[in-house]
């Protein structure tokens, strides 16, 4: 025996399924609305496997530092069960699951219009707590400690750093750097929270009508030797996503400048109207924390640029930048060069690791990197 659930897309029932006691998919009983299936299910992949992939993606990864505490607090065996306790509700998209016998609607449960309790255990360690509330924070896929909060009726994502605590500062720096361009990005600000820790905070870029579709579900399963860039562009063309070449090129460019090594297939994607299923464009650039020597106690000033690793299309940034096919005329290189020294001083002044020596090394290397863009922008 198992428990029967309905996968919902807002108030559209998509499919019914049976889950085992340990939340594996026993079987898909019926497909009700084919068009509204998660995008990764629109392939020849086994449908149960694709659905399980979709469901596990919308749960906290095992790389999250405080996952064991969260599982203990919510009395869940694993992160998938933890997410299911909150109907797998997210504020990134409009999918959710409900027990087949429960009479619930989207208006009853969604977190765009309904309140939720902001449990600080998602951002800091706490002992001897127990919760059973429904929250969007059990369906946030990211390795860093993070949580959604609501301020002045707006949803904001609060995100902490890792060992060196540089990621929040890097998010803010990249955000301020992009403020000098016409590139579409998510704006971050730095905050110091209750325990003295620095975090970054950004506004949500989805809403009740518009959802985020991660790139991994768009591109599908790729052959090991496939050209990942061309495969994604082909899918964008088929889905009629506006301005995808321009915006993906901008993302490659930003990651090239900042040496971001974490632009995996879940860290970028597309915006879609969840009612019409029309794609509206590439999502604004977000998640830039794993950049700018975030994991280095000392910056390796002599490390050749061509050895810095990249994702998602190829192995290094110097290779990946070659995918940009057209000149980027809207980028003012001189403006970027002018603001770098001031922004470094402004953003990193409160981080103990970022001494004047480190800031000077960052400045020199960043300016070299930006100067090197001139041949790409002007060609």
Structure description:
The chain has 379 residues and is an alpha+beta fold. The protein is 30% helix and 17% strand. The protein is built from twelve helices and eleven strands. It has helices at residues 47-57, 67-73, 79-84, 106-109, 167-178, 215-219, 228-238, 244-258, 317-320, 333-348, 356-371, 374-378; strands spanning 3-9, 12-19, 25-31, 95-99, 146-151, 154-159, 189-192, 198-203, 210-214, 269-273, 279-282. Strands 3-2-1-4 form a four-stranded antiparallel sheet, with helices on one face. A four-stranded antiparallel sheet has the order 5-6-8-7, covered by helices on one side. It has a three-stranded antiparallel sheet with strand order 9-10-11. A hairpin with a 2-residue loop joins strand 5 (146-151) and strand 6 (154-159). Helix 10 (333-348) runs antiparallel to helix 11. The longest helix is centred in the C-terminal third of the chain and has 16 residues, at 333-348. The mean pLDDT is 94.
Number of helices: 12
Q: Would you tell me the structural class of the helices and strands? A: alpha+beta
Strand order of the largest sheet: 3-2-1-4
Largest sheet: 4 strands, antiparallel
pLDDT under 50 segments (min length 5)? none
Mean pLDDT: 94
Strand content: 15-25%
Shape: globular
Helix and strand run: EEEHHHEHEEHEEEHHHEEHHHH
Helicity range of the residues? 25-40%
Tally of DSSP β-strands: 11
Distance between the termini: 64 Å
């Amino acid at each position: 025996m198992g428990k029967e659930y309905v996968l919902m897309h807002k108030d559209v029932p998509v499919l019914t399924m049976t889950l085992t006691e340990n939340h594996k998919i026993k079987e898909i009983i019926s497909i009700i609305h084919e068009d509204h299936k998660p995008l990764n299910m629109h392939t020849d992949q086994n449908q149960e496997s694709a659905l399980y992939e979709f469901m596990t993606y919308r749960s906290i990864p095992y790389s999250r530092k405080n996952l064991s505490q969260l599982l203990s607090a919510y009395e869940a065996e694993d992160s998938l069960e933890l997410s299911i306790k909150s109907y797998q509700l997210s504020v990134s998209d409009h999918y959710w699951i409900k027990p087949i016998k429960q009479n619930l609607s989207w208006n009853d449960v969604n977190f765009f219009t309904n309140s939720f309790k902001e449990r600080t255990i998602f951002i800091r360690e706490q002992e001897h707590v127990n919760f059973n509330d429904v929250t969007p924070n059990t369906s946030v896929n990211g390795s860093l400690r993070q949580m959604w909060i609501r301020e002045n009726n707006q949803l904001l994502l609060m995100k902490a750093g890792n060992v060196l605590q540089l990621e929040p500062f890097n998010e803010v720096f990249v955000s301020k750097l992009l403020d000098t361009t016409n590139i579409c990005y998510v704006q971050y600000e730095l905050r110091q929270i209750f325990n003295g820790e620095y975090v970054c905070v950004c506004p949500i870029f989805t809403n009740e009508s518009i959802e985020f579709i991660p790139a991994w579900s768009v591109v599908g399963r790729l052959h090991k030797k496939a050209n990942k860039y061309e495969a994604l562009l082909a899918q964008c063309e088929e889905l009629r996503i506006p301005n995808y070449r321009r915006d993906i090129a901008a993302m490659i460019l930003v990651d090239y400048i900042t040496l971001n090594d974490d632009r995996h297939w879940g860290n970028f994607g597309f915006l879609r109207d969840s009612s019409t299923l029309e794609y509206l464009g590439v999502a604004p650039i977000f998640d830039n924390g794993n950049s700018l020597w975030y994991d280095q106690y000392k910056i390796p000033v002599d490390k050749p640029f061509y050895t810095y690793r990249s994702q998602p299309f190829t192995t290094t940034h110097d290779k990946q930048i070659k995918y940009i096919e057209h000149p980027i005329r809207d980028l003012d290189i001189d403006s970027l060069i002018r603001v770098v020294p001031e922004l470094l001083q402004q953003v990193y002044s409160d981080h103990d690791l970022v001494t004047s020596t480190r800031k000077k090394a960052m400045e020199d290397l960043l300016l070299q990197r930006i100067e090197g863009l001139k041949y790409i922008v002007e060609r």
